[in-house]
Specification:
The complex is a heterodimer. Chain A has helices spanning 4-19, 37-40, 63-75, 91-95, 112-123, 140-153, 234-242, and strands at 50-56, 79-83, 104-107, 128-134, 156-162, 174-181, 193-203, 213-219, 224-227. Chain A starts with a helix and ends with a helix. Chain A is globular, with a radius of gyration of 18 Å. Chain A has a single domain, classed as P-loop containing nucleotide triphosphate hydrolases (Rossmann fold). Chain A is of the alpha/beta class. Chain B is an alpha+beta fold. The longest helix of chain B has 21 residues, at 215-235. In chain B, the strands form five sheets. A six-stranded antiparallel barrel of chain B has the order 11-12-13-14-15-16. In chain B, helix 10 (215-235) packs across helix 11 and helix 11 runs parallel beside helix 13. In chain B, strand 14 (431-439) and strand 15 form a beta hairpin. Chain B has helices at residues 3-14, 33-46, 79-92, 105-114, 129-132, 145-153, 159-163, 170-174, 176-186, 215-235, 268-280, 301-304, 316-332; strands spanning 53-56, 65-68, 100-101, 122-123, 202-212, 238-249, 254-265, 288-300, 337-342, 352-356, 381-393, 400-405, 408-421, 431-439, 444-450, 456-461. Chain B has 13 helices and 16 strands. Chain B has four domains: 32-186, no CATH class; 202-335, 2-Layer Sandwich (Dna Ligase, domain 1), CATH 3.30.1490; 339-370, no CATH class; 375-461, no CATH class. Classes of the chains: A alpha/beta, B alpha+beta. Chains A and B meet through helix 3, helix 4, strand 3, helix 5 and strand 6 of A and helix 13, strand 9, strand 11, strand 13 and strand 14 of B.
């Protein structure tokens, strides 16, 4: 006779195998009040072994910050590899996202072919937690290779792409569209914050997504991502939280 | 000296000078006695071309090189010429040396510190000692601070004042060191120094009767040489940090490769794989006459057990990362795979130092908590060159209402301001009002206005 606990565990195991999502042992799930993204993507904080596409239109949209903040629980103490083909990433700005600089490596390849090779090699490496890269064009074959590499290494591939890529085929587990919105209410002179509309465009498997679209507010001073209230303006909510 | 104190002193000393002269950029570095000692030892070893006996002084914080030039003077045309040549050699390496030659270590030390000038070395013969040393201050005897302060309290300031004291009473009143140093300086008591031994170069060489014509043979010979090299290193508990490989073809043309490693390694297979990565991207000749492998930089294998940036002992996963970084560095070039560290600088262009992961020198980043600048005000992308923008501001010193960049008109909704001004002594100084701005579309940019020119630039984006 099977105990209820064993039955529940086997059910969860089957569910995980179906979704091919790897949960990192020892990583605690963030509370939904703390991480607004958790409402959109319940597994994003523990997802590894695949690719996540973050789409946004132009520079300054906030998709990189959001992607890093959302993926930090999954990466834990492993290494971050940033593939910076444009040589523009600024370490001081990345440090503001609470990344441990001792475990951050910047790779600046000159050619796009090299960039692809770097990403694939890094994704195959077990000690690497996440590989962040920017690709405008990615062939289906290359995309598939990256996805297999991420599966092999159990790493997380964060692909930052243009909004135009949403009509292209994808091997990513998630495809997320980030659109910046102008914030309302009075601004704190010391704590910059920004509001983002995050839309889950696609998930490869049936995941526990409770919503397709959420509004989040990113507070740069402490790197918090808060869910914006759907009923009231965000400004009073923030004040109430800090009071 | 604490870094903050050094910075404040620099500010106090340099700020009142209004003259717009360009001086060299100040460089702050944490005090590291072990590293200083290593460098000093290396400097001593570099003096091998002057004498076979060289070393450093025996002190808590040594700062002097000692060379025993007995029997070497005639090779350089005499003591004065040797001293001048030593001085020139160090000046060529941007040191400010004070060189002295004397018959005793103590007298040479005293003459170097109190007689020699940067461009005029001091030479003191044995017959000159009784006349030269007595007028010198007591600090020339290499005494401790405690003894010096006691002597100063008693009004004793020069060596001649000590010489007139009864010898028998000196040890009981001031300790044995004073008399010992006095005798050593005048050559009444022998003094020795421990000579540094230059490290045996770790190199292996192959030169065949017939040239190598195939890659397979090249690989086989290289692997054998590498194993030989690494076994010699392993006996001394050392691993490779940088390997130099020189291939020479039949026309005596050289092909040089430098292989770097993130941590010291003694794995022949891994080393060979990294070497092959470099060969793959090079146009190697069809025939090769000789192979030369040399361990340029080595490191203790004990530290190889630590992880990438000197943390706790690494796991298998960390070793995989190290292998990855070695592979990336050797295929793409060491300047491509970087680690960064924050510097206590407000000017964004120089606030971060990027160093190759295979750089043997391990420098630590400043704690972000200690930085004066708010990191949340820094963009995630910083342009190499700020881009000029057309901005429309109502007030001359005010925030722009709108600006045009990237063929788009942006209307500013809100902003966070910060002024960044650097010292006039900087070669590239910055006097800017920075604004983190939110535009009507919700995008965040980092723009600034040059205070002296009143023109606007965009310098980064908050991605």
């Amino acid at each position: 006779m099977t105990s209820p606990i064993l039955a529940e565990l086997s059910a969860r195991l089957r569910q995980l195998e179906r979704s091919r999502v790897r949960l990192v042992p020892g990583v605690s799930e963030p509370s939904s009040s703390e991480i607004g993204l958790h409402r959109l993507l319940p597994n994003i904080s523990s997802f590894r072994g695949g690719l996540v596409e973050w789409l946004s239109d132009v520079k300054g949209a906030g998709s990189l910050s959001l992607a890093v903040l959302a993926s930090q629980p999954a990466v834990g103490n492993d290494y971050w590899i940033f593939v910076d083909s444009r040589s523009q990433l600024h370490l001081a700005g990345l440090a503001a996202l609470s990344l441990d600089l001792q475990r951050l490596v910047l790779v600046r390849p000159q050619r796009s072919a090299d960039a692809l090779w770097v990403v694939e090699q890094a994704l195959r490496t077990r000690g690497v937690g996440a590989v962040v890269c920017e690709f405008d064009h990615l062939s289906t074959t290359s995309f598939r290779r990256l996805q297999l590499a991420a599966e092999t290494g159990g790493t997380l591939g964060i692909l930052l792409r243009s909004e135009r890529a949403q009509h292209q085929p994808s091997w990513a587990e998630y495809r997320i569209l980030v659109r910046p919105l102008a914030t309302s209410g009075s601004s704190d002179p010391w704590q910059p914050r920004r509001r983002l509309q995050v839309e889950l465009l696609r998930a490869r498997k049936e995941l526990m997504a409770a919503a397709k679209l959420v509004l989040v507010e990113l507070q740069d001073a402490d790197g918090r991502v808060c869910l914006v209230s759907e009923l009231a303006s965000a400004a009073p909510a923030v004040r109430a939280t800090s009071a | 000296m604490p870094l903050a104190e050094a910075e404040t002193l620099m500010d106090c000393n340099l700020a009142p000078r209004k003259a717009k002269t360009t001086v060299r950029e100040p460089h702050f570095q944490a005090f590291d006695p072990a590293a200083d000692l290593d460098r000093l030892r290396q400097l001593a070893i570099d003096c091998e071309c002057f004498t076979p006996l060289f070393g450093i002084e025996d002190a808590e914080f040594p700062e002097s090189l000692l060379l025993d030039v007995t029997g070497c003077l005639h090779l350089f045309g005499g003591d004065q010429d040797l001293a001048s040549r030593l001085s020139e050699t160090f000046r060529a390496r941007e040191f400010l040396p004070r060189v002295a030659i004397a018959t005793t270590i103590g007298a040479a030390w005293a003459a170097a510190h109190f007689l020699a000038k940067q461009k005029s070395p001091a030479v003191v013969s044995s017959s000159q000692l009784p006349a030269v040393l007595p007028p010198l201050p007591l600090a020339a005897l290499r005494l401790t601070v405690n003894i010096l302060s006691v002597l100063q309290e008693l009004g004793l300031r020069t060596i001649s004042q000590i010489q007139v004291l009864p010898r028998a009473s000196i040890p009981s009143r001031f300790g044995p060191l004073l008399l010992k140093r006095l005798d050593q300086a005048f050559g009444d008591e022998p003094e020795f120094f421990v000579a540094e031994k230059p490290r045996e170069p770790f190199a292996v060489h192959w030169e065949g009767e017939f040239p190598i014509k195939s890659r397979e043979v090249l690989h086989a010979v290289s692997q054998e040489l590498l194993e030989d090299l690494l076994s010699r290193l392993t006996k001394r508990r050392e691993g490779l940090r940088q390997l130099r490989c020189v291939l020479r073809d039949c026309r005596r043309r050289s092909y040089e490769f430098h292989v770097g490693f993130t941590v010291p390694t003694d794995h022949a297979r891994h080393t060979f794989e990294m070497l092959c990565l470099q060969w793959e991207r090079a146009d190697l000749p069809d025939e090769m006459d000789s192979i030369h492998l040399e361990a340029v930089v080595t490191g203790s294998l004990q530290t190889a057990q630590r992880d990438l940036f000197g943390h706790e002992p690494g796991t298998d996963k960390d070793r995989e990362v190290v292998t990855l970084l070695d592979r990336l560095s050797n295929r793409l070039g060491s300047r491509t795979v970087l680690r960064g560290r924050l510097l206590p600088e407000a000017q964004p262009e120089v606030a971060v130092a990027y160093e190759p992961c295979t750089d043997p020198e391990m420098r630590t980043s400043i704690d972000p908590e200690c930085l004066k600048t708010k990191l949340s005000q820094r963009p995630t992308s910083l342009f190499t060159q700020p881009e000029s923008i057309e901005a429309l501001a109502i007030a001359p010193d005010g925030l722009p209402q709108s600006f045009r960049w990237n063929h788009q008109e942006h209307h500013v909704v809100r902003s966070w301001q910060e002024r960044i001004e650097t010292g006039w002594w900087r070669v590239v100084s910055a006097n800017r009002d920075y604004f983190r701005i939110e535009v009507h579309t919700g995008h965040h940019f980092w723009i600034f206005r040059r205070l002296d020119q009143q023109d606007w630039f965009i310098h980064g984006t908050f991605d």
